[in-house]
């Protein structure tokens, strides 16, 4: 299997250097996924990832801004909001980036995983608008692990001040500072805090919400933490409110490239595992629960409505 991996890396390096940048890159991503499917996640990480990082294709991949940002972790942790901005197209290559890096950036950002991230943003903006329409000026929304809260600038209710209040929580004070600056004058309350704080009774002081969501968070949580958090977020809902959480699916084709060249490994979960997030929610309090994948088939959503 190591021979197959080296053949793939050699072939895609040659394609990219010969100018077939997008097709070479896509061949690399899909080839790595096939090798991980054959070897299994553990063997892929213990044997194949080190070989990827030793190969001359690594500095080529690291000319690409998304891959380099993820790998170098400028904020000290995986999956920061600056990285997600690169997928949103709100940040991009810098003047120092090479032409090859720019072309690779287009290839990375336009893949299905990136589409899922952009879909998530616009879908959340529509959901905030719908909650504002349903509950008017009294509406309260909680965005857990909000990052740069980029769905806010797509939401008419946020931009026009139709929503009552959106509390935006993130553990990264740099992201919270950016939200405070960019959302000044809007009905948005940025809070620097962690999931642990949300789990504590202290967070009761912030009241209850009509809509709570967490995007790009559960992919980093253990199963017990995911269960506890879901139960707590459900508790924080007003009667008639809804909770929406999301998790990347194991079918995500970019996962092997991300593990190898981006040092970005998520907790991929099946649809059944995502439904398990609700295991600690009292069934008697649930009006309706639905779970569905996004149009790209990369992200599974779980939505729980309170009676
Ligand atoms: C992948 S980003 C997603 C940002 C945003 N929700 C989006 O969809 O664009 C993940 C965010 O989760 C935040 N985060 C991770 N662990 C957290 C925790 N335990 N408590 C609060 N925020 C957390 C990070 O700081 C980061 O901003």
TrEMBL record:
CDD domains: AdoMet_MTases. SUPFAM superfamilies: S-adenosyl-L-methionine-dependent methyltransferases (SSF53335). InterPro entries: SAM-dependent_MTases_sf (IPR029063). Gene3D superfamilies: Vaccinia Virus protein VP39. This is Methyltransferase domain protein. It comes from Aquisphaera giovannonii.
């Amino acid at each position: 299997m190591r021979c197959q991996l080296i053949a793939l890396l050699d072939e895609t390096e040659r394609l990219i250097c010969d100018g077939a940048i997008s097709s070479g890159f896509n061949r690399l991503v899909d080839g790595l996924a096939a090798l991980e499917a054959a070897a299994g996640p553990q063997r892929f990480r213990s044997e194949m990832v080190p070989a990827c990082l030793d190969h001359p294709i690594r500095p080529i991949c690291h000319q690409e801004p998304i891959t380099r940002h993820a790998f170098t972790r400028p904020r000290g942790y995986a999956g920061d909001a600056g990285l997600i901005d690169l997928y949103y197209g709100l940040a991009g290559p810098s003047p120092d980036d090479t032409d090859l890096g720019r072309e690779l950036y287009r290839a990375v950002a336009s893949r299905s995983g990136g589409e899922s991230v952009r879909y998530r943003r616009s879908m959340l903006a529509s959901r905030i608008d719908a909650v504002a329409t349903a509950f008017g000026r009294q509406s309260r929304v909680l965005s857990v692990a909000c990052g740069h809260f980029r769905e806010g600038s797509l939401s008419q209710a946020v931009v026009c001040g139709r929503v009552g209040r959106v509390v935006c929580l993130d553990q990264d004070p740099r992201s919270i500072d950016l939200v405070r600056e960019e959302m000044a004058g809007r009905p948005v309350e940025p809070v620097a805090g962690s999931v642990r704080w949300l789990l504590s009774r202290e967070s009761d002081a912030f009241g209850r919400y009509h809509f709570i969501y967490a995007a790009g968070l559960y992919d980093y949580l253990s199963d017990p933490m995911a269960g506890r958090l879901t139960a707590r977020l459900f508790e924080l809902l007003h009667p008639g409110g809804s909770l929406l959480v999301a998790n990347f699916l194991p079918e995500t084709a970019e996962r092997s490239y991300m593990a190898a060249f981006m040092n970005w490994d998520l907790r991929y979960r099946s649809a059944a595992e995502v439904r398990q997030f609700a295991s600690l929610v009292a069934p008697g309090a649930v009006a309706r629960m639905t779970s569905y994948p996004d149009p790209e088939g990369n992200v599974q959503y779980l939505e729980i409505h309170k009676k």
